[in-house]
Amino acid sequence: MDFKIGDLVTRISHNHDILFKIVSIDRDVAILRGVDLRLYADSLISDLVKSNSNNNDGDKKILEENMRDIKMDRSQYFYLPGKILHIDGDSDYLKRCMDFYKEMNVKANGLTISEIEMPYKVSELLNEFKPDILVITGHDAYYKEKKNTSDLDKYQNSINFIDSVREARKYEKSQDKLIIIAGACQSNYEELIKAGANFASSPKRINIHALDPAIIATSLAFSDKSKSIDLLKLIEKTKYGSDGMGGIITNGTMYVGYPR
Fold first, then answer.
1. Which of 63, 156, 57 is nearest to 104 (CA)?
2. Which of 138, 134, 135 is nearest to 114 (CA)?
3. What's the CATH superfamily of 56-257?
4. Who is most buried in 34, 71, 143, 188, counting CB within 10 A?
């Protein structure tokens, strides 16, 4: 079977568990990027089969579910949702998240920045955009064969996300004034929270959905600033619930005004 860059594929040896897109091919090996899950993998061409799956339907379902959760009395009140700054190490995932923000009618600025550069640019971007919510995400991986979840050397990009959170907290120490959502697939959840993130991945070191950070950010943007969020309900809106994402109880970022 002939394969080319951009083909959607699954792996025979993994029982077709994850849908990937081919991003490069070198002889008999393909580099793959998860379509829904934020991960990279490599595979022998002989282990791949093409797929006719389309992730657009999945994104539409997620969008519809989140829209149903937003309840506002527009007859008397007006609403000012929080602003989001989304920094992503992957341009494809960033586009999907930005499309999600647009459909949800929340103001968001998005930039693609490599994970290693994030700690050096986040302060400048916070000063420029002055968001209420900061998303720091991209790609990560935990090397399970190392068998030490606390050693940051065992992670692909967790240290870059952690350093970015620390730099962001130099800009704004209060976790109510700046809400930070950080991490990607298999990231070191505990260290991200210790660094100052309100929400982070991944408690069970599993993969997360491409839209998980955007789902949490949008929910916070539409949550009343004077009220604490329902933490368990918010986490359960993500793909794998508390296995993939966790966080602390915090207030929302939306102002409610009267009269309309």
1. 63
2. 138
3. Response regulator (3.40.50.2300)
4. 188
